[in-house]
Each structure stands twice: as structure tokens, then as C-alpha cells.
Design brief:
Helix content: 25-40%
Strand order of the largest sheet: 1-2
Length: 191
């Protein structure tokens, strides 16, 4: 992601709705047509995995309900809020789904919305046994001392304002196995 930004290259997330999971249309009782759908062979579409991850979809439904948006629109809006050059292209076979997906552009996510989504994802990570691997907050402000508020973290309800510079750097670290940390610097603007 950082190289894409440095070189001015766009990034297209693969399967931004997780093959309909984030749309809210799937649940642990969903039946698939095995002759043309490989989801039954993938661990994340097994009934127990769908049930375990349902909290994220429920949150997208709740926040979306407050904004008049569907869970799919919320998931796409979250991606669109990350960087202007990150452009999700969800697959769609129906005109009404295409129109729904386009509506994601108009969904405005607040810092509180982004924190709630972050917390829901962290809870899923913790339920799967990797919670101890999350070693720091999602992000922080920059200033004279480097790491300072506002913090993109639970408990910091300060509103991000035009001109603020913050980091977004979620990470999971597993001792003896490795880890992953994504880091971006974001300038907050009036838009």
C-alpha cells in the first residue's frame, strides 16, 4: 500500500464485500450451489466462521441504519474513507446491487463510526485468539513530540479537525511467528 501511494498507483481491493458476506445477505444457514460457487470450500464461509464474524456485519447494519445505508454501502464507504486512491470495485450481477454500491459514495463516516468499526473488527480478532497480538491503538496525531493526541482509539472522542495530521497503523504481532502492520499518514481536510 505504501509503495502504491509513493508511486501514485491506485489500489483496487479484491472482493471488497467478501463475496457478499459484508452485504448482510449471508448467515450460518446460507446454502450455496456447489456446482458454481466455491465458497463452501473456504473456511471463512463455514457456518461457525460466519457466526463468529457476524458482529461486524451487525455493526455495519446498525451504523448504516442511522445513516440510511446498507451494510454493503457501509463496507464500501469504509474503504473509500481510507485513501482517495483506494478504489473498491465490487462485483455485481444485478442493476439494483450496482446502484446500491454506487450509493456508498454518499455515505459520510464520522471518526466515531470509524472507531466503532475498528472495535468490532478487534473483537473478532480477539475471539479468534489473536487479541493479545494487537499491541497498540489504531492511530495517533503528530506534533512536536511525534506521537500525541488525538488518538484514533477507544476512549478518545475528540473530533478530528481540518489540518490535523494523524497516523492509521493497525497491527497484529504473533511472538515467534511474525506479524503485520499497516501504516498510513492522513491529513484531515474539510472535505
Amino acid at each position: 500500500i505504501r509503495v502504491c501511494e509513493e508511486l501514485g498507483i491506485g489500489f483496487v481491493p479484491y472482493s471488497p464485500l467478501s463475496r457478499a458476506f459484508l452485504s448482510g445477505f449471508l448467515n450460518q444457514n446460507t446454502k450455496y450451489n456447489a456446482s458454481n460457487d466455491n465458497r463452501p470450500s473456504l473456511p471463512r464461509y463455514q457456518p461457525e466462521a460466519i457466526k463468529a464474524n457476524q458482529g461486524v456485519v451487525d455493526l455495519l447494519k446498525r451504523i448504516g441504519g442511522e445513516k440510511g445505508a446498507t451494510p454493503a454501502q457501509m463496507a464500501l464507504a469504509w474503504l473509500l474513507a481510507q485513501k482517495p486512491w483506494i478504489v473498491p470495485i465490487p462485483g455485481s450481477r444485478k442493476v439494483e446491487r450496482l446502484e446500491e454500491n454506487i450509493g456508498a459514495v454518499a455515505v459520510g463516516l464520522t471518526p466515531r463510526d470509524l472507531r466503532e468499526i475498528d472495535q468490532a473488527v478487534r473483537e473478532v480478532i480477539a475471539r479468534h485468539g489473536y487479541g493479545d497480538g494487537i499491541l497498540h491503538r489504531t492511530g495517533h496525531g503528530f506534533g512536536i513530540t511525534g506521537h500525541e493526541g488525538p488518538y484514533v482509539a477507544l476512549g478518545d472522542d475528540r473530533v478530528l479537525q481540518d489540518g490535523m495530521l494523524i497516523s492509521i497503523e493497525p497491527g497484529i504481532y504473533l511472538p515467534g511467528r511474525g506479524g503485520f502492520r499497516h501504516s498510513d499518514t492522513v491529513l484531515i481536510t474539510a472535505e
